[in-house]
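Ticket reopened. Same input as before:
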Amino acid sequence: MNKIYKNILGLVCLSGLVVMSASAVDQAAAAGDLAEISALSVMAKANLSQAALGGDVDAIAEAVKRSDAVDASVNQAMQSYADIVVALRNGDEDAAQSAADAIRASLEKAMDALNGVIPEQVADAVNQWKDSKANTAGGPGQPYDPPNMYDVPWNSQQMRAFYQSQFGNFWNAGLDPSDNEATPE
Amino acid sequence: MTKYCLTVGLVVAVLAGSVTVHSTYAQAADSKPALTVADQAQKAISAAEVQVEKAREAIAAGKELIAQIPEDSPLMPDVAQVVEAASANWKIAIDSLKGAKESSSKVATAKNPSIASDYALLAKVNAGVALSGAEVVQIAITYVEAVQSNKAESLDVIRTALQDALASSSQVQFNYERVKKLIAEKYSK
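Engineering reply: fixed in the latest deploy. New output:
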């Protein structure tokens, strides 16, 4: 009788473990979802280019809005994938699962956005992000600012060390800049 | 002791069963029936086939459009670059569609459901690579059309869309490679 119980117990535990392991996060499937969201982004760009060729300003604005919303979902999904990698590395199955769910949610949002269903708060967030990146004609830390020609890129400790070592090599070679003629004549 | 072990075993079984039942109910609660990975792969391949066919038609139209652009047009170097990008992506689209169909054909003959599911996933993602490559070709031909029809105001928008599409398309390819690597790692353990 004891033996029968043990066999039943073994079978039950094994089947339980198989079912439990089947629910583990599939990183490959998550990467597949990420690929699918990026493909939706390409489709959004194709729609935008068609709208641009048509020349209808309203259609272009709508296509830009959808494309931006899809890109927002792409960014969210990429962040979630990074979260999965970290969670799996730390053995945190729950966090990995919730990140995988977030990727699925981003995929659905991207599909909705491509079809023109964009939640108001997403549209607002995209607009706020765009406004924050607008050119402020020289404001610090903003894109499209003109380059500061007085900024010396080599004026860093690392670059100084590099040039000093180069000079050291030159010095050790026994040459002096004055050894070279300034002109070929 | 035996009774205790049996109770623990039953609890594990009930818990495991509840996970399965829960997900089954969740699927049933969806308005649309849940697609299997194999169905999704088939759907993705069909969508990619449609876009590849559209890209083929666009290329045929593009050849005529390029012939109509004056050779001394200042935009000719741009057109050459765009055609180069289209050519590279056309090759990617064709190769990936072929690969997707090949993976899909192995789903039915796979040794077990796990391998079948992995083949289906590969087919689905590769079909996505084909689709995005075909879309890039179409955007490139749209640019050529805009040059040919002197739609200067559209060029900037289409050029930017093409650059963004190329970036997104490379993300699709990158993730396909990632999926391939993860699946290969699973079987090399």
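Chain B touches chain A through 51 residues (CB under 8 Å). Helices of chain B lie at 2-29, 37-68, 76-105, 113-148, 152-188. Please confirm and we'll close it.
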